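PROTOCOL LOG
Step 1. Enter all chains and additional molecules of the complex.
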Amino acid sequence: MRADFQSWVAAHQARFEEVLRGLLPRADIAPQRLHEAMRYAVLDGGKRVRPLLAFAAGELAGAETARVDVAAAAVELIHAYSLVHDDMPCMDDDVLRRGKPTCHVQYDEATALLVGDSLQTLAFQLLAEHRLNGHARFPHPNPLPQAGEGANESLRELHANDDASRQLEMVRLLAVASGSRGMAGGQAIDLASVGKSLTLPELEFMHIHKTGALIRAAVLLGAHCGSVSAEQLDRLDHFGKLIGLAFQVVDDVLDCEADTATLGKTAGKDADNDKPTYVSLLGIQGARDMAQRLHCEALETLAGFGDSAQRLRELADFIVLRKF
Amino acid sequence: MRADFQSWVAAHQARFEEVLRGLLPRADIAPQRLHEAMRYAVLDGGKRVRPLLAFAAGELAGAETARVDVAAAAVELIHAYSLVHDDMPCMDDDVLRRGKPTCHVQYDEATALLVGDSLQTLAFQLLAEHRLNGHARFPHPNPLPQAGEGANESLRELHANDDASRQLEMVRLLAVASGSRGMAGGQAIDLASVGKSLTLPELEFMHIHKTGALIRAAVLLGAHCGSVSAEQLDRLDHFGKLIGLAFQVVDDVLDCEADTATLGKTAGKDADNDKPTYVSLLGIQGARDMAQRLHCEALETLAGFGDSAQRLRELADFIVLRKF
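Step 2. Run joint prediction.
Step 3. Record the structure below.
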């Protein structure tokens, strides 16, 4: 990781943690236990890959950081809710997440259920409420300086100068990406696949929904906070799809190779659960090759963007070359 | 129930069932089992009290029925998701709902979890996507004729002629009503209250969140589909709050009096679970008196609306005088 990129990641991660702290309901407001558990499930953990993708796409599109903060938070809350529900006994029954007891272990199952439900709701609330009198109203006091490298091409026709329309489109995007034909649908297919042997296209279909849809949405939401042409948006969408799939392939490789301490979650879980993975289907080297191929393709889709896509390229490298 | 009102209810219930059928994902689209279970949890059941309130408020505000359909569906999907999750073993552990096996009994717990999650997402998706080029695009082919009695006062200042802003406000309203400081928060307080004795204000606080918030939102969302003044909206909000509370008080009375067959869900459940209710706190006659008082207050808030509020008045009567 280049030093410059490393400090970009660290700065955004640290600042974003404060953004999340400010956007989550305070633990001293009723119902206290629920709010405390919501904060437990979201704060102090995770690489924030989706928010980082949103920030990088936002920089490409010349968006204000404070505006991307809200979109990135919405995506991360959806991700966090899915982890809380996914870890529950009726799903993956996992006890460790991000190096801490999972939410239902730390609190109880009923609370974990409500935590996930409420985090999802909050994601949509954030996308809808951070505006006033038709003008965006964002809470963070110290936005980072703008990259100033954003594409200055024509706004998408539909959304020219129409903040509310654009926000509504972001609500729609996030909902489609996370619902029964997106992330939740992928989890349903995942459940149905336990103990079955899937073909590569079937496995891909599952992961494009389960992991890919939200990663793709993170890129698009970041871009929607600024100005990009419809054609650029299509290329970013394709980039998001490829990198989302690469993310899952790498996850499978790491799950197979790493130990629990490094991963911060129970390792080897998928193999134990008799779930099909890229490693079980392609072997470890085959999976590594596939990740490399997706990585190359993803970088190709960014070719036309020049310097403005530098952070997205670095994130693509980071996602594929990470060791945890 | 007056014959005229009875046929209004029946017509809207029947038409709305078709609206829901059209808006829910088809059961032959992947993931099939999840989509089938979502349809199972929503269709063929329930009195549709919240949608009816939205339709009545929409008539008062002179809204197009097709527009209210989407808002009413969003509210009903949130309600349906909450029932699916509420019935799960880690919450109320209930096996019967609307005269049918609950979702996790009919399918399995993991599917029920994903059904609830996906119904919530779909609610927000619907509110965001039913528009095109800034103009509302609604799916139902045969909207009912308009009542034509809607208030013709000034639009709320903020939202004049701005469909997207208005839709975004509806997303925000629904999210606030159903999240950790609304419905889900009320359920968290409910959980924490098992085996405890609450005071009347504490019980009221719980139900204003658990049941009241969404009923209130139904009235407001219906009104937002048409044109009402800010002052009228405030009065409708107060009406929604009172009638939401009355709904819960009546529920407690019925839960105590009725048998399981009439109710379509397990009767006496709250008392069995050692949950505080209005009946346990006020006695059966005290609870009946309270419902009557709330009913009167609710009707008073509608005094200035004249004929346009007739359906809302009739619904208030229906909610308080219902036997199931």
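Step 4. Note key features.
Chain A has one domain: 3-131+164-321.
The domain at 3-131+164-321 of chain A is CATH 1.10.600.10 (Farnesyl Diphosphate Synthase).
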